[in-house]
Design brief:
The protein is 29% helix and 13% strand. By secondary structure, it is of the alpha/beta class. The protein has a single domain, classed as Alkaline Phosphatase, subunit A. The strands form four sheets. Strands 1, 4, 5, 6, 7, 8, 11, 12 and 13 form a nine-stranded mixed β-sheet that branches. A two-stranded antiparallel ribbon has the order 2-3. Strands 9-10 form a two-stranded antiparallel sheet. The N terminus is likely disordered.
Length: 455
């Protein structure tokens, strides 16, 4: 049976590793930021783009498009399910009764009902969704996170191409890292900063922005920082590890010293600490987002955009409803409803929606036919939601057949999905990059823009 928890595994029984460690604590103690900041001086100039940032809401497991966004009330009973369509504030556009708050703000987002973004499986589907390339493993066989060992994820590409623009890292995952959210051959410099804690908790704080309260006080922290500086000075004089016979030492030491200084700046930055301090938000607004993981993560994502983050991935699991799909969606859908509706409204009221791209998708949808367990199984077709950042408002794009089984219009493929996001962010999705063995590959394999979606 489906639950509302985001920590459960997939239907194949493979549990996802949640404790993603970007790096060791290092000499600064409790610090895993230096490699995340190493790209600051390497980011090339971007193309003109509508969006300055992207908030990516990933409903892992596969939400049911036929129960939320693309209902078929005239289909046979074994397909249509118990939910009814309701009107939205866009004349002629209907969505499911599970999404009443989104219905009131449908003029702020656009639905693409012909999205085929993955391969109808979990781990491999997320790999396709976030990298645009086939995985080197079978579904259910990825034993670690991130599983995209070769190709970089969407967030890592944005991090590398655009670089930081504020006090926070350019790519952040909250509360966990997706199974295919890693940097691939780009290396750890472009890995996400993973929050690893749930902002819905009353005592929520980001570990890496606070010195260990018992082990490392500010004086000890400063001593370690000065020790790093001294090591750098000795290395630059050839006094470490063989002296002049170790020609690479001083350059490497100087580079890492620069990144540690940037990490130190973030740890001591009032702006960075403020960005993560969700407790500053008015209680009424937090309630509007919803006191659940997805709602509070969406609110935190808005704060991170304000602080300069380029790409925030919000992972929300447990949508794999092979059993008791309808009860499962009665539990899960309200969180997606309040999070999405409040996020796009909040961004719009702050004048941020036009240059912040919001995406809500799963790695798949669910089958039209209800199975013997009152569930719906894996299906490649889904409805993708977009808002802001150069996307049309209030549009309904694409369509599906009478049972929501197949697209009846040009499908939004994985290549056009990723190509469109990169285009809106001002990134050349056809740009050639080079793997760690020197093989040239394009950022998106066969990328293109889904023109119907653009303003």
């Amino acid at each position: 049976m489906s639950t509302a928890s985001s920590g459960s595994g997939y239907c194949d029984g493979i549990s996802r590793r949640r404790a993603i460690k970007i790096g060791g604590t290092g000499m600064l103690g409790g610090l895993s930021l230096p490699h995340l900041l190493a790209m600051a001086d390497q980011a090339p100039a971007a193309l003109p783009g509508k969006a300055k940032a992207c908030i990516f809401l990933l409903l892992e497991g596969g939400p049911s498009h036929i129960d939320m966004w693309d209902l078929k009330p005239n289909a046979p009973s074994e397909i249509r399910g118990p939910f009814n369509p309701i009107s939205t504030n866009v004349p002629g556009t209907l969505i499911g009764e599970l999404m009443p708050r989104c219905a009131k703000v449908a003029d702020k987002f656009t639905m693409v009902r012909s999205a085929t973004l993955g391969d109808g499986a979990h781990q491999t589907g997320v790999h396709w969704l976030l990298t645009g390339y086939p995985p080197n493993f079978a579904d259910g066989q990825a034993k670690k996170t991130p599983a995209n060992e070769l190709y970089p994820s969407l967030g890592s590409v944005i991090s590398r191409e655009l670089g930081p623009r504020g006090a926070v890292p350019p790519y952040i995952c909250v509360p966990n890292q997706s199974v295919a959210g890693g940097p691939g051959f780009y290396g750890p410099s472009y890995a996400p900063f993973v929050i690893e804690t749930d902002p819905v908790e009353p005592d929520f704080e980001v570990r890496d922005l606070n010195l260990a309260k018992t082990a490392i006080d500010e004086k000890r922290f400063d001593r370690r920082r000065r020790m790093l500086q001294r090591i750098d000075q000795l290395g630059s004089k050839g006094l470490l590890a063989g002296g002049k016979n170790a020609p690479g030492l001083s350059g490497r030491s100087a580079i890492m010293s620069t990144y540690y200084e940037k990490a130190f700046s973030m740890v001591t930055s009032p702006q960075a600490k403020k960005a993560f301090n969700i407790h500053e938000e008015p209680e009424a607004l937090r309630e509007r987002y919803g006191y659940h993981q997805l709602g509070q993560c969406a609110l935190l994502a808005r704060r991170l955009v304000e602080a300069g983050c380029r790409f925030i991935s919000v992972e929300h699991g447990s949508w794999d409803t092979h059993f008791d799909n309808f009860t499962g969606h009665e539990v899960l859908a309200p969180s997606a409803d309040s999070a999405l509706a409040t996020l796009v409204t909040d961004l719009d009221e702050r004048g941020m929606l036009d240059d912040t791209l919001v995406v809500m998708v799963g790695e798949m949808g669910r089958t039209p036919k209800i199975n013997k367990n009152a569930g719906r199984d894996h299906h490649i077709l889904q409805t993708a939601i977009f808002a802001g950042g150069g996307v049309k408002r209030g549009a309904l794009i694409g369509g599906s057949d009478a049972t929501a089984a197949a697209p009846t219009t040009t499908p939004m493929t994985n290549q056009s999905f990723l190509g469109t996001i990169f285009h809106l962010m001002g990134i050349d999705y056809n740009k050639l990059v080079y793997t760690d063995v020197g093989r040239p590959v394009s950022i998106v394999n066969g990328g293109q823009v889904f023109e119907e979606l653009l303003v």
